[in-house]
């Protein structure tokens, strides 16, 4: 079930919130636990059984690990837990088995709990419902944000409901829904049209339009989901972590990924990069550790060859920035911005196209002096520019810095509420008329 579906908007969410707000505080975690399980099971009861099994196995083994005082035995238990969680994820990622919805995200959530308890950052939970609420919390269950256990432990015991938080959460939810339905869903049609035409037949301007369109689609799709998740979290009394911080304002690829999918980057930093040694062992080890992190990041996203290739390309740019061109980019801010707006869409093309043969053709259209095929209609970009130009413009306007300032200052104003009401009903109208796509990160 998706946040941008009529079933969620008019059935699940209202019924769940009414029950959640009416029950006494001591029953809120049980309502969250069972409500989240129902939410997930409505997609697939088989996947829900697998999730329950994995969650319960982790709960039992972590309790055992927490009771063990001997370091070698604790290490053995940790290896067992890591092998099970990572192994299960790899089995589904790299075989022909159907990928359970959200397994990449809830596996990292479970691993956060395992590793935080192992490192004694927090004690293992004895209360199964409290533990299960952390894992299953439905706003973040399927596509994040990935909330690390150490940062959520206190919130699981007390998540007060305040009218102002409900109001602000609803505001974030509607903005996220607008990003998804009004911007991302329309730009998704452009990318599908380009795929339908055939990469070898599009003009170079349309190829670039497609690269920028896919970049904007991915951003507003995932940013939209994250805002909706954070908004629902606020309505439930939780503060879920921020997942995006205007990545396209960055000046380096490294900065871009500190601002993009922040919770995933933080997870890899805390549980992979730093344990590997981070940048504490000199440049050679830093170089190697960055390589490992980015190849694993690519593999986490998918099993086809383009994903580790995408991760490897990002590693190359980040290594170049760190060891070669950092000073130049710091001194030439406007060139650094142009560099990001040029490089990042090209890397998203690698992310989007799973076959290397198709990827080669697309890059040949982007850079036609390498030559592969000709544009069947050299003026095709004019047609698509007229159709999708308004959505590119809208994406640009809502991304401007002053829009954040307006929202922070005016989200309680009556006219802002009127705008949000209109946005909500535009979204509902478009969803009712069939203009809806699955969230893109459901695939990962």
UniProtKB/TrEMBL annotation:
Record key words, sorted: Acyltransferase, Cell membrane, Membrane, Transferase, Transmembrane, Transmembrane helix
InterPro entries: Ac/AlaTfrase_AlgI/DltB, AlgI, MB_O-acyltransferase, MBOAT_fam
Spans through the membrane: 9-27, 47-65, 77-95, 101-119, 131-150, 170-191, 307-325, 334-353, 385-402, 414-432
Domain of life assignment: Bacteria
Annotated signal peptide: none
Cellular compartment(s): Cell membrane
Claim: Magnesium is one of the keywords in the record: no
Recorded topology in the membrane: Multi-pass membrane protein
Cross-referenced PANTHER family: ACYLTRANSFERASE (PTHR13285), PROTEIN-CYSTEINE N-PALMITOYLTRANSFERASE RASP (PTHR13285:SF18)
Family: Belongs to the membrane-bound acyltransferase family.
Protein name per UniProt: MBOAT family protein
